[in-house]
Write a structure and sequence with these properties.
The chain has one domain: Aldolase class I (TIM Barrel), CATH 3.20.20.70. It contains 12 helices and 13 strands. It has a 13-stranded mixed beta sheet with strand order 1-13-12-11-2-3-4-5-6-7-10-9-8. The structure holds S-adenosylmethionine (SAM) and iron/sulfur cluster. The site of S-adenosylmethionine (SAM) has 20 residues, from strand 4, strand 6 and helix 12.
Length: 382
C-alpha cells in the first residue's frame, strides 16, 4: 500500500501563467501566480508567520519500524517504497534549498524516513553547506536520525558541513527499545552513534524521546539521568496523531505536564528564559547545572501560532503542515523549464496563502481540516 498516493497532490504545472491549458487553481498556487518579482516585503502567511525552517525528507525508507510511525503491519515486505527516479536528486534539493533561502529560510533539516539510508548523504550535506542566505551567512544545517548507522558516517557528515544533529531514542532499556523500534538493532548501537557525534563536536546534540503511555513511561527517569551533565538535551515528545497508520488514541499520550511532574520528583527544575520564537520545544533546566530538557507538546499545547516550518517530501512535494492532506508538486517545476524567478513567485504565493493550524484546532475543538488522508511522517519528513 502506498499511502501517500491517496493524498491530494496539487500539480504546480496547472498554473495558467505557464501557458498550458487553464484549469481551476487551488488558492495556494493561484493567489499571486502571475508573479511580480520579489518585492522585498516580508513573506508572511495568513497568520503573519514567517518561513524559516525547511525540512527535507531524503528517503521514505527506514531501517526501523517504530509502531507510532511505520508500523510493520503496514510497512512490511509488501509495502512499495518510492522508486529511485521519483526521488529528488541532490542537485534538485540544492536548487530548492537555494530558492527557499532567498525567501527567508534559515534552517535546513534533513530527515525522512531514515536519512542515513540515502546513499552518499554527505555529498548532499556538502552542497547545502555551501549555500548562503541573502546576508551571506550559511544556513543552519541539521539532521534528524535514529543513529543506527551514524557512528561510521558521522565524521564524513561533520567534515561536509553538518552543524547539528537530533537523534531519536525512546528507551535505554534494550528490551523496551527493541519493542518500540521493532528492529534488530541494540540500544548500544544508538548510544555509540551519540558518542561518535559528541566526539566529532556536533554540539549541541538533541535526543528525541516519544513517550507512549504504558510502553516507555518507565524510561523517563533513566533517560533523564543518562543524559544529564552530558551536553545532550533530552526532549520528550508527545505521541502525535500524525498520518493514518499508527492507530493513535488520545489515551496513549503522556502529556508533557505529566513528564514534568515525574522529573520534578527526582530533580529540581527551573525555567529557561529567552526562548526563540518558532522553537518547537519548551525547555527547562536542571537547577544543579545538569543541562536542559525539552518538551514538545504538540497534542496538549499546540505551537501552531509561531510555526515557521515547511516540508519537502522525498518526491518533491511541499507540505505546509505536518498534518496536511494536500501537497504541492515542486518537482515538476524543478524538472520543467521554469526559471528560478517563476518558481519563487509560486513559492511566495504558497506561503502567503498558508492557513494551517491543525494542532491548535484540535486543541480548541474547532473543526479540524477534513477531506483527504493525512500524510505519513516517514514520507513528509519528521
Ligand atoms: C519521522 S522521524 C525521521 C527521522 C529519523 N528516522 C528518526 O527517527 O529520527 C523524525 C522524528 O519524528 C518522531 N515521530 C515519528 N512519529 C511520531 C509520532 N506519531 N508522534 C510523535 N513523534 C513522532 C520520531 O520519534 C523522530 O524523532
Ligand atoms: S520514527 Fe524514524 S526511525 Fe522510527 S520508523 Fe519513523 S522514520 Fe523510522
Amino acid at each position: 500500500m502506498l499511502i501517500m498516493r491517496e493524498s491530494r497532490v496539487i500539480p504546480l504545472q496547472a498554473a495558467p501563467s505557464m501557458g498550458r491549458e487553464a484549469r481551476p487553481l487551488p488558492p495556494a498556487w493561484s493567489a499571486h501566480a502571475h508573479g511580480a518579482p520579489l518585492d522585498g516585503s516580508p513573506l508572511l502567511d495568513t497568520l503573519a508567520r514567517p518561513l524559516r525552517d525547511l525540512r527535507i525528507s531524503v528517503t521514505d525508507r527506514c531501517n526501523f519500524r517504530c509502531g507510532y510511525c511505520m508500523p510493520r503491519e503496514v510497512y512490511g515486505p509488501g509495502h512499495r517504497f518510492m522508486p529511485q527516479a521519483t526521488l529528488l536528486s541532490f542537485e534538485e534539493i540544492e536548487r530548492a534549498s537555494r530558492l527557499f533561502l532567498s525567501l527567508g529560510v534559515r534552517k535546513l533539516r534533513l530527515t525522512g524516513g531514515e536519512p542515513l539510508m540515502r546513499r552518499d548523504l554527505d555529498q548532499l550535506v556538502r552542497l547545502l553547506a555551501a549555500l548562503r542566505t541573502p546576508d551571506g551567512s550559511p544556513p543552519e544545517l541539521t539532521l534528524t536520525t535514529n543513529a543506527a548507522l551514524l557512528a561510521p558516517k558521522v565524521a564524513a557528515l561533520k567534515a561536509a558541513g553538518l552543524q547539528r544533529i537530533t537523534i531519536s531514542l525512546d528507551a535505554l532499556d534494550d528490551a523496551v527499545f527493541r519493542r518500540m523500534s521493532d528492529a534488530d538493532v541494540p540500544v548500544a548501537q544508538v548510544l555509540q552513534g551519540i558518542d561518535a557525534a559528541l566526539a566529532v563536536g556536533l554540539m549541541p546534540i538533541k535526543v528525541n524521546m516519544v513517550v507512549q503511555k504504558g510502553v516507555n513511561e518507565d524510561q523517563i527517569l533513566p533517560m533523564a539521568r543518562h543524559f544529564r551533565h552530558t551536553g545532550v538535551e533530552l526532549r520528550f515528545i508527545e505521541y502525535m496523531d500524525v498520518g493514518q497508520t499508527n492507530g493513535w488514541r488520545m489515551d496513549q499520550v503522556v502529556p508533557s505536564q505529566e513528564v514534568v511532574r515525574r522529573l520534578s520528583e527526582a530533580f529540581e527544575l527551573a525555567p529557561v528564559l529567552n526562548q526563540a520564537p518558532g522553537e518547537t520545544a519548551r525547555r527547562l533546566r536542571y537547577a544543579d547545572g545538569g543541562g536542559t530538557v525539552g518538551f514538545i507538546s504538540s497534542v496538549t499545547e499546540a505551537f501552531c501560532g509561531d510555526c515557521n516550518r515547511l516540508r519537502l517530501s522525498t518526491d518533491g512535494r511541499l507540505y505546509t503542515c505536518l498534518f496536511a492532506t494536500e501537497g504541492h508538486d515542486l518537482r515538476a517545476a524543478l524538472r520543467g523549464d521554469e526559471a528560478d524567478a517563476q518558481i519563487l513567485n509560486r513559492l511566495q504565493s504558497l506561503w502567503r496563502a498558508r492557513t494551517d493550524q491543525y494542532s491548535a484546532q484540535r486543541g480548541q475543538a474547532l473543526p479540524a481540516p477534513t477531506g483527504g488522508r493525512r500524510i505519513e511522517m516517514s514520507y513528509i519528513g519528521g
